[in-house]
DNA sequence: AAGCGCCAGATTGTCGACAATGTGCGCCTA
DNA sequence: TAGGCGCACATTGTCGACAATCTGGCGCTT
């Protein structure tokens, strides 16, 4: 068996559990973007003391889901076009780098696994055409695999632990369910092919384009909501 | 006056103060790399309770200076060639991106300020030829300015808050004081020129080379220590 | 009536103690 | 004597209460 990434380990402590719950609540909008976080209220709601709650809040700040000001409390981040742009600028670069490194460091076995994963997603996606949740989970899964394949712990930490919840938040709250689903699969396929060919430069390029396309898709969504 | 970056704000709370002290202690090696962190001991040493101390530890984990395992405690990170390589791989990309964005977003006034900063460093460096501390501080200052010039808050956060203490730790503990000082200044000059010309592509390239050169320099140092 | 300062309520930061978990030594067994 | 089990100790996780700080509204002054 391969080593499980720290971020994926099952919750052990109370702080871990409440962290996951609040993370989900924020990402899915149960706790509204921009709203104030009250420590006493959350403590009552999840039936624990403020100590583990504050631990959880510290980690939420780490993945940019909340912003804290000393002596003034925490607020859920507000989504904005500027924020989305900044986030995706970073993702294009970082995941491009991840691809380049994955082309150097992934084992043949790992590449085979990812290909099997894609085939699996493809078949299940063909069946449930409009369903966006599976696609999204699958998309994240693909990206996760590639990022882990880079074997760069700092890069893995930044992308998987710190940025991905925010990416998911934008996706979920803007309701990504467009016709990009099948296109994305082809792009994933091309990327893993480049990695399998050990062509890091191409994999980098393809991933940057893939994310840029995804960004344009979301921007379009935002624009439509604005009008 | 320009807005002060959150990371640079003066300490308000007890957790902030102890964080800065421990950060310095780890970076400068007062607390040895790889050693275990004892919460009760540090609490006594800094004369405060464990609550703010744990807050500080959470932030130390955030900037990769310590590693925590639930119910088992925290250890100072151990420096390694692999870790150094991973860190600099990331820096090359991220700071390259920062340069590209800075070329797009820095104001003429900000560029002028950075140039004045460089002239200032050059003159004071000419005077104290071998002194490495000023050079290092100046180098970090230059990089900070460029990063802030990118105007991408996520990028700024990752580089200034999460990675730079680690970079400093490698530099300090490996005793960077070689003859690269004057070369580095020329490279800085070339980078800010490219930014001033709004040539993002060139600025990106030059910064990547600058950091790659710095990395090779440190690797050399490591190699010498190994023999 | 508008603006400033002050007070009350609520919230965050900090503390010391208790509960849960992990660690290392000594003892017993084979 | 080597290996495994169990207990005592130390450390981390959690709790409830107190202190410091911020927010909003009232009354006073001009």
Automatic annotation (TrEMBL), chains A, B:
Matches recorded under Gene3D superfamilies: GntR ligand-binding domain-like, Winged helix-like DNA-binding domain superfamily/Winged helix DNA-binding domain
PROSITE patterns with a match to the protein in the record: HTH_GNTR
Coiled coil: none
Boundaries of every HTH gntR-type domain copy: 12-79
Family annotation (InterPro entries): GntR_C, TF_FadR/GntR_C, Tscrpt_reg_HTH_GntR, WH-like_DNA-bd_sf, WH_DNA-bd_sf
SMART domains to which the protein is assigned, alphabetical: FCD, HTH_GNTR
Keywords: DNA-binding, Transcription, Transcription regulation
One Pfam family cited in the UniProt record for this chain: GntR
GO MF entries: DNA binding; DNA-binding transcription factor activity
Protein name: Transcriptional regulator, GntR family
């Amino acid at each position: 068996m391969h080593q499980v990434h720290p971020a994926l380990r099952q919750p052990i402590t109370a702080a871990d559990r409440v962290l996951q719950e609040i993370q989900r609540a924020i990402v899915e909008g149960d706790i509204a973007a921009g709203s104030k976080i009250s420590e006493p209220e959350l403590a009552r709601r999840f039936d624990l003391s403020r100590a583990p709650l504050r631990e959880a809040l510290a980690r939420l700040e780490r993945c940019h889901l909340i912003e804290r000001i000393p002596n003034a409390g925490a607020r859920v981040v507000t989504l904005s076009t500027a924020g989305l742009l900044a986030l995706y600028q970073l993702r294009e670069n970082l995941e491009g780098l991840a691809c380049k490194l994955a082309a150097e460091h992934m084992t043949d076995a790992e590449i085979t696994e990812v290909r099997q994963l894609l085939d699996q997603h493809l078949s299940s996606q063909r069946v449930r055409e409009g369903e966006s949740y599976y696609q999204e989970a699958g998309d994240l899964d693909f990206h996760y695999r590639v990022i882990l394949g880079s074997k760069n712990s700092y890069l893995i930490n930044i992308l998987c632990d710190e940025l991905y919840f925010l990416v998911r938040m934008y996706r979920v709250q803007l309701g990504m369910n467009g016709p990009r689903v099948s296109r994305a699969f082809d792009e994933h396929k091309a990327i893993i092919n480049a990695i399998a060919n050990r062509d890091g430069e191409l994999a980098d390029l393809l991933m940057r384009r893939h994310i840029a396309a995804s960004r344009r898709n979301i921007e379009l969504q935002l624009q439509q909501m604005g009008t």
